Amino acid sequence: MLARFTRRAPAILILSASLALGGCGYNDFQRLDEQTKSAWAEVLNQYQRRADLIPNLVETVKGEANFEQETLSRVIEARSRATAIQVTPEMMNDPQAMERFQQAQGQLGSALSRLLAVSENYPNLKANQGFQDLRVQLEGTENRVTVARNKYIDAVQQYNVLARSFPTNLTAMIFSYSPKASFSVANEAEISSPPTVDFGSSSQGSK
User: Fold this and answer.
1) Mean pLDDT (whole number) for 164-182
2) Residue 50 · residue 66 · CB < 8 Å
């Protein structure tokens, strides 16, 4: 009987370890980690989609005589800063890197919002089908960015709750599952708020 138990001991230990890991949240960490990675990838995909639309938008606007060069330059510069940030999976574990990324993307969104608002003062742009198509695509992309970002925020929240709650926080300590960085919705909304545009001061565009 001792020999039979000895032969079964490895299997019993493996089963016990599996049950222990499952009970302490190990499997949940694996699932939520993959969930956050997937959500993050979608965020990046939508931001890249927005960045890819901007060159065509800029070229279209350049064809409009007397368009506000400062507004156009801000979009070009903001896109340059946003795309210059090196994005890596490790960014999810670096709150400061995530904040820099968020600020750059928020500033680009703000610059785009101003450009689209100012364009309302230029009848030729409003009548330009190419410009209007780009505008629709940008607006659709902004909506998808918001959806993707919210899904990422939710995924990170679930992961971080697991990492900070007892007893799963012990599993997090053992396997080095640190809380992940998220977006600050309040700051994003503040950065992305389009400025007030005084069409009365932009009379050059209506000449």
Assistant:
1) 92
2) no
Question: Which structural domains are found in the chain, ordered by start?
Answer: 42-145+184-195 (1.20.1440.20)
3-class SS shares of the chain: helix, strand, coil, % to 5:
80, 0, 20
User: Degrees (nearest 5) of the Cα angle 129, 134, 139?
Assistant: 125
CB neighbours (10 Å) of residue 82?
A: 22
Residue 185 confidence (pLDDT): 56
Taking residues 5-27, report their average pLDDT.
52
Residue 44's CB: how many other CB atoms inside 10 A? 14
d(CA 6, CA 25): 29
In the numeric block, the tokens 């209506």 are attached to 206
* pTM, entire model: 0.78
84-94 confidence digits (pLDDT tens): 998 888 889 89
Buried b (16+ CB within 10 A) or exposed e, 107-123: bbbbbbbbbbebbebbe
DSSP sequence for 147-162: HHHHHHHHHHHHHHHH
